Amino acid sequence: MCFLECKNDKMTNKPSILLIYTGGTIGMIKDYKTKALKTFDFSQIVDKIPELQQLNCKIKSISFEEPIDSSNMNTKYYVDIVEIIEENYQKFDGFVVLTGSDSMSFASSAISFMLENLQKPVIFTGSQLPIGDLRTDAKENLITAIEIASATKNGAPIINEVCLYFEYKLYRANRTTKISAEQFEAFASMNFPPLAESGVHLKFHEHLIHQPKKTANTLIVRKKLVDDVVFLKIFPGISDIVVKSILNIPNLKGVILETYGAGNAPNSENFIQLLKNAINKGIKIINVTQCESGRVLMGHYDTSLLLKKIGVIDGKDITSESAVAKLMYLLNENLSTEDFKCFFEKSLRGEITDISFLKV
Questions:
Q1: How many other C-beta atoms lie within 10 A of the C-beta of residue 209?
Q2: Cα 285 to chain center, whole Å?
Q3: Which of 79, 156, 175, 283 is most buried, taking the most CB atoms under 10 A from its CB?
Q4: Which of 73, 74, 78, 60 is nearest to 16 (CA)?
Q5: Protein fold of 2-221
């Protein structure tokens, strides 16, 4: 574990922030002799980003012993992250998690479900360019993520949920999708507005931010996720053989069915029967739209009416990244079929938009 503290850290009223580095581009620097990228030593972070000394907080950092590429992120590493937060929850006022951007929406969405009764900020961030590059976006993302994690109002943290900060915008993590591999504005939250925006001033949209219940119990960490799940994306011409082979994967527990538009899929007898057979075996099937924005409206068209009748679960406006995380989480809760559907179709961590919000 490596440590960095801001200046004037003797002032005990300053927020304490823990940086958790798991790997990814933000933690890489270029060896200008070999031109190769190598892992950055976060104990030396103040040398690369001296602006951190100007933040009104105390910062410490911890890194994975073996930093991982975002492509290698999996449920084991989710558990590693939440265990670090759990072990340090009482010691720090906020957490900034640095990961690779490719799987950041998946990881941060999962963490949002794994942390119940969260009353402190957990901010995910990363970068498109390494921290040592001349035109890097890493510095701004990191500095502002720390500033957000340490922001308070009336002595309490402004943010009390898992978020993702990238290129001047703070999003609810389980609402995000990575939309670009090249642009600095790599993420979007198509169905929910940003919680904060960074410009000349850091502006929080407080009416959108989760407000924890004053009667909430202590932090509960859910460490067991069921990963016997799969994505099934519908496309014109998809064959029954392909669908059948996917739905007959051994030990399969859940399916994210990525459908057209407002939740529409082929209504051929064979296709519907394959889904019905899977549901009868106890496999949970979630209807999620392929579209970047909008929501599933089960039964709005004839091509989704049959899905509703056979027991496909309505994903509403949840993202695919959040849907698979929520599926992994709920599958471990040993819920009845009715209760599973009830819990999935309602918002647990702000991942689904309440209809009343849409009417405002």
A1: 17
A2: 21
A3: 175
A4: 60
A5: Rossmann fold (3.40.50)
Q: What are the phi and psi torsion angles at 351 (to 5°)? A: -80, -15
Determine contact, residues 186/179, Cβ cutoff 8 Å. Answer: yes
Selecting among 22, 25, 99, 144, the annotated active-site residue is: 25
Quickly name the fold that domain 229-357 has.
Rossmann fold (3.40.50)
Structure tokens at 251: 């030990």
At 310, list the tokens.
């056979």
The token duo for 106 is 């998946």
* Per-residue tens of pLDDT for the chain, all 360 residues: 333 444 434 445 889 999 999 998 888 877 777 777 777 777 667 667 788 888 989 999 999 988 899 999 999 999 999 999 999 999 999 999 999 999 999 999 999 999 999 999 999 999 988 877 878 898 899 999 999 999 999 989 999 999 999 999 999 999 999 999 999 999 999 999 999 999 999 999 999 999 877 766 799 999 999 999 999 999 999 999 999 999 999 999 999 999 999 999 999 999 999 999 999 999 999 999 999 999 999 888 888 899 999 999 999 999 999 999 999 999 999 999 999 999 999 999 999 998 655 444
The two domains 2-221 and 229-357 share their CATH topology (first three levels equal):
yes
Residue boundaries of the structural domains of the chain: 2-221, 229-357
Q: Is 353 a catalytic residue?
A: no
Q: Long-range contacts made by residues 231-238, C-beta under 8 angstroms, separation at least 24?
A: 231/255, 231/256, 231/258, 231/320, 231/324, 232/256, 232/257, 232/258, 233/258, 233/290, 234/258, 234/259, 234/260, 234/265, 234/266, 234/290, 238/266
Q: What is the pTM of this model?
A: 0.92
Do 154 and 113 meet the contact criterion of CB atoms below 8 Å apart? no
Q: How many angstroms separate the CA atoms of 92 and 120, rounded?
A: 9
Distance (Å) of CA 281 to CA 177, 298, 343: 31, 22, 20
